Amino acid sequence: MRVAVLCGGRSHERTVSLRSGARVEQALLHLGHEPVLVDTEENVEQLLRDGGFDVAFIALHGRGEEDGGIQALLGALGIPYTGSRSTPCAAAYDKARAKRLLVAANVPTPRFVTFSEGSIEEQGAMGALAEARETIGYPLVVKPARSGSSLGTRFVEDEEAMPRALLGAMSYDVHVVVETHVSGRELAVTLLGGGDSEVRVLPAVEIVPRNADWFDYESRYAHGETEFTCPPEGFPPAVLDRVAEVALAAYETLDCSGFGRVDMIIDDAGDPWVLEVATAPGLTETSLVPLACEAAGIALPRLVELLLADALAQSVAD
Amino acid sequence: MRRSTLDPYEDRYARRVFGMRSSVMRDLMAITQRPEVISLAGGLPNTGAFDREVLASLLEEISRTDGARALQYGPTEGIRGVIDVIVDVMRTEGMDPDPANIIVTTGGQQVLDLFARTFLDPGDVVIAEGPTYPGVVPCFDAVQADVRHVPLDEDGLNPDLVEELIDDLAREGLRPKYLYTIPTFQNPGGCTTTLERRIRLVELAHERDLIILEDNPYSLLRYEGEPVPTLRSLDQHERVAYLGTFSKIFSPGVRVGWIEAPRPILARINLMKQAADLCSSTFMQLLVTSFFTAEDGAMWKRWVSDLNVIYRERRDAMVEAIDEFFPSEVEYTVPQGGLFLWATLPAAIDTTDLLARALEKNVAFVPGAGAYLDGNGGSSMRLNYSAMESDRIREGIRRIGETANEALDLARTLGLDGER
Fold it and tell me: Which of A145-154, B8-17, B118-127, B170-179 has the lowest mean pLDDT?
């Protein structure tokens, strides 16, 4: 098959996406397909229209790339594509929207409030700080609502540090999510399938930062900064069952399909809290999805093959 | 059960590699390569103005008359012709080096690396300016050095602060292995250390047994004011090692620089260089030699003076645009030469975050944090004016100014102090 591997783009995570794309390209060659790297930086519509592609593999990350726009375009062009459909992508990418959906479906997610530049101007800094203090309390986490990975995310210990954290997060998006900091162990759960096919929950990967106590952007993408354990050690089976159950609920609540990753914190009582759902998780050599797949006996080429088959099946269903 | 870092070779790496991190900044910088981005982030000399015919004829002549040698290994210390050229260039700057005290290197960057590896064990203290050249940061990281910054002011590096630091270190039982400085048109600070301070720095080095590594890539790019003698030329006691480069006065692509240093240091550097690359490119050394000896040295001097006319005009365009478009609280250096200026915004602004905003407007700069190893510099930025034409510079500065004003408005709304 002639496969468009969509990667690059204009987001801050362009570099990561190019690395994901290159890995997918290798896997496709290995499978005997004809991959064509399509950098979505410009003319993407033309490239897709003229490319004669049988299917598109989406390896895009970050703002403007992960928000469902490319899925809508592919849908309109009638090109089957991997992963979730447009609406779930848009919902998952906007952390505020995703959290609202999760709360409505009783999926546990840390308590949160949202702010925007406009709302802060309206209620004033004192009002916003009071709201954060009273509704959330310290320590808390400030995140841009729409930004891939953890760019602009800040752990805030006390109110004094809050204005700078808000200002920082608002550099990446005008909307920010302020949520309770849940301390505990961080797990990422990869899921395959969805839509009309059954969802398969893969073993969770535990993320243990080597130095910092915060899993920041730098450690996420740098070799050797973080240790990953798959499956995680020392959890009672009941907790891992609950983790799988909550991950599945989050994935289905957002109506994801193809594949995705649910990031969560397991608090000291053993309860999981969903931090976010990624519909376009990274596939680089330091990404979590390939690791979980390997632990489940699915090498990257096999994952790519599964996703292509799923793309074609979803396209028929569409 | 499996424990993994996703890197199967992880447990075999040397400890030092873990100190070398990829950064947010580097990934953000990757997007600055897009053609629609006005990048004031680079440090690129203007090679576009170099006469291609001249380049072609220099290369052709080398190929025809000296081809076998051009393709061959050379001595570790460099070929004689280029060492003579180096002596000439250093004389132009008021020094009179012994050719035997020179080693040709693969760019000035190699001197930074070789010097760090020759002198610094893990935990050793090195003194650097604050801000320091971002390119030296990985060299210090790679040897796990303990870098102590001495803040710069508009008169450059203050010897009194260096002395205070040496005293403080002595109280901790520490002694700095060397001081790294760019005294003229400092990158990224844009400032120049005054003569009075230079004299005192060299005295201090003698009194306190301090080695100085003087990095001097820019001083011939002076378009205003009188040249200030190099530290090396003031040194009577073999305290100063001197780093020079052809990158800014000819081409960074040839990767030819040099170190001139006291003989014992040079012997050690020579051994390190043998391990690193045996010798620098013979072909490129011949090219440098041809260009710098053409017309008895008149050709390169004319090229540098042409560059200075261009750079001066671009600096003026940048300064004018900053005055017009940046928040009034900005403080910045007005360099009399070189390629960069350094601007500092109110402390509420984090310039790494600001870069994310600026990229939305297709403009880029280097955030100041990359010029410090101690977490400072967060509200500063380095702006380059050598690499593009004045109207693009003006538009770039307008966009950064707009971004900074928006961020500052929001900072004030959030109750953050707009002061510096």
Answer: B8-17
What does the alpha-carbon distance between residue A177 and residue B236 come to, in Å, rounded to a whole number? 62
Give how far the C-alpha of residue A228 lies from the chain's centroid of Cα atoms, to the nearest Å. 17
A167 with B34: Cβ contact below 8 A = no
How far A97 CA sits from the closest chain B CA (Å)? 23
**Cβ neighbours of B10 in A, within 8 Å:** 223-224
Strand order in the sheet with B178-181: B102-105, B257-260, B240-245, B212-215, B178-181, B125-130, B146-153, B156-157
How many helices (H) and strands (E) chain B has is answered by 13, 15
List, by residue range, all CATH 3.30.470.20 domains of chain A: 92-108+183-317
pLDDT for res A162: 94
Q: Tokens for A132, please give them.
A: 């954060």
Cα A242-A245-A251 angle, rounded to 5 deg: 140
Q: Indicate the CATH number for domain A2-82.
A: 3.40.50.20
Per-residue confidence band for A219, with pLDDT thresholds at 50, 70 and 90: very low
* Residue at token pair 């390629």: B339
Q: What is the CATH number of domain B72-296?
A: 3.40.640.10
* CA-based nearest residue to A277, from A95, A13, A143, A81: A95
Mean pLDDT, to the nearest integer, of B100-119? Answer: 97
Which segments of chain A belong to CATH 3.30.1490.20?
112-180
Chain B residues with CB under 8 Å of A291 CB are: 4, 6
Question: Residue ranges per domain, chain B?
Answer: 10-49+301-412, 72-296
Residues 6+ apart with CB under 8 A from B101: B260, B261, B262, B263, B266
Write down the pTM of the prediction: 0.86
Residue A305, class by beta-carbon neighbours within 10 Å (0-12 exposed, 13-18 middle, 19+ buried)?
middle
Contact A163 B411 (CB under 8 A): yes
Task: Please tell me the distance in Å from B35's CA to the nearest CA on chain A.
Answer: 11
Q: Which of B22, B354, B415 is the closest to A163 by Cβ?
A: B415
Q: Which of A314, A312, A304 is nearest to A35 (CA)?
A: A304
**CATH superfamily of domain region A92-108+183-317:** ATP-grasp fold, B domain (3.30.470.20)
On whether any CB of chain A is under 8 Å from the CB of B18, the answer is yes
Alpha carbon separation from B264 to B115, B238, B280, B288 (Å, rounded):
13, 10, 21, 27
Q: Which CATH architecture has domain B10-49+301-412?
A: Alpha-Beta Complex (3.90)
Q: What number is the ipTM of this complex?
A: 0.81
Q: Within a 13 Å sphere around the CA of A228, how many CA atoms are in the beta-carbon half? A: 29
- Please choose, from the candidates B132, B149, B146, B140, the residue with its C-alpha nearest in 3D space to the C-alpha of residue B113: B140
Query: Rounded to whole angstroms, how far apart are CA atoms B129 and B118?
Result: 20
The Cα B150–Cα B127 span in angstroms is 7
Considering chain B, what is the average pLDDT of its residues? 92
A185 close to A206: Cβ distance less than 8 angstroms: yes
